[in-house]
Amino acid sequence: MKILVMGAGAIGSVFGGFLSKSQDVTLIGRKAHVSAIKEKGLRISGIWGEHLFKNLKAFTSADECKIYAPYDLVLITTKSYNTEYATMQILPLIGKDSIVASVQNGIGNEEIIAKIVGEERTMGGMAIFGAMMLEPGHVKVTVYASECLFGTLSKDIEKSKIIAEMISKAGIPSLPTDDIIREKWIKAFYNIALNPLSAILKVQYGKLGIYDETKAIIEVMLQEAFKVAKAEGIRLKFTCEEYFDYLMEKQLPPTSKHISSMLQDLERRKRTEIDFLNGAIVRLGKAHKIETPVNETMLNLIKTLERMYGSTFLG
């Protein structure tokens, strides 16, 4: 299978590297990262072992990949605010039977992709592991919580099985799902609850579960998010109270030392994905006339930090 990873940062590089063991993989990433991969290969270290992948192509733009098109599978792993741009860039590189999968945080990416490539070619992917770029050409897998999930918007479970099995065989545990949008919302709850608060307080995730005050804030953010999800018609598998207990007892302990991507973005003077997390809850809440004051406070605080840090945004 010919696979293109659009936006090969930390997570995208892990997928691309492991898949290159058995598939024809092309990465599109930043110049320094691409140059390092071309010179020395892609090094992946961390909890999944030490690897050096040299059997892949790497470029800085979609135009350079045209000679290898069409691609059977495109993994979009850019930041959510670049989803529309990234999808437009890869549009000339796909065929009528290609799959375009969003492997991104946040709510709404699949809908953006589907408007451009069509629902029948759109897939959602959910990565339940963490990774960070140590230097150009070197990515570290830092944490693993559960299997990745993949599912088409058209609910074609057979197609989802093919992709999930291929990724699992490559070394990244994955499963198919017949409701990827629900699963993406569930992951969004995790990020909505932890990302902005950990970024504002500059702490690891685990610290948020220690104090009654932070737990109270998390609980109200989730209550607002669950009301919005219900209004959106999302078929959730548990109540807000059940999820809060699950978050504190099951999800938080194995990721307690994780540094949120939002905090990393702020420290690097980069734009965050707050608009597709708490910001999405605020936006959809307004559409359904649901008040979301705590999520809106988090949105405003993170936006203020972005401006105070003087970030120059490309999205």
Topology record:
Elements lengths: L1 E5 L3 H10 L4 E5 L2 H10 L1 E5 L4 E3 L3 E3 L11 E6 L6 H8 L3 E9 L6 H9 L4 E5 L2 E7 L2 E7 L3 E5 L4 H14 L3 E3 L3 H22 L3 H4 L3 H20 L8 H12 L9 H7 L10 H10 L5 H16 L7
Parallel strand pairs: 1-2, 1-6, 2-5, 3-10, 6-7, 7-8, 11-12
Antiparallel strand pairs: 3-4, 8-11, 9-10
Helix pairs in contact: 3-4, 6-8, 6-10, 6-12, 8-11, 11-12
For this entry, give a set of tags.
single chain, 315 residues, Rossmann fold, N-(1-d-carboxylethyl)-l-norvaline Dehydrogenase, domain 2, 2 domains, eight-stranded mixed beta sheet
Written overview of the protein:
The chain has 315 residues and is α/β, with parallel strands linked by helices. It has two domains: 2-177, NAD(P)-binding Rossmann-like Domain (Rossmann fold); 182-308, N-(1-d-carboxylethyl)-l-norvaline Dehydrogenase, domain 2, CATH 1.10.1040.10. It has helices at 10-19, 31-40, 83-90, 109-117, 157-170, 180-201, 205-208, 212-231, 240-251, 261-267, 278-287, 293-308, and strands at 2-6, 24-28, 42-46, 51-53, 57-59, 71-76, 94-102, 122-126, 129-135, 138-144, 148-152, 174-176. The strands form two sheets. An eight-stranded mixed beta sheet has the order 5-2-1-6-7-8-11-12, sandwiched between helices. The chain has a four-stranded mixed beta sheet with strand order 4-3-10-9. β9 (129-135) and β10 (138-144) form a beta hairpin. α8 packs across α11 (278-287) and α11 packs across α12 (293-308). It is globular, with a radius of gyration of 19 Å.
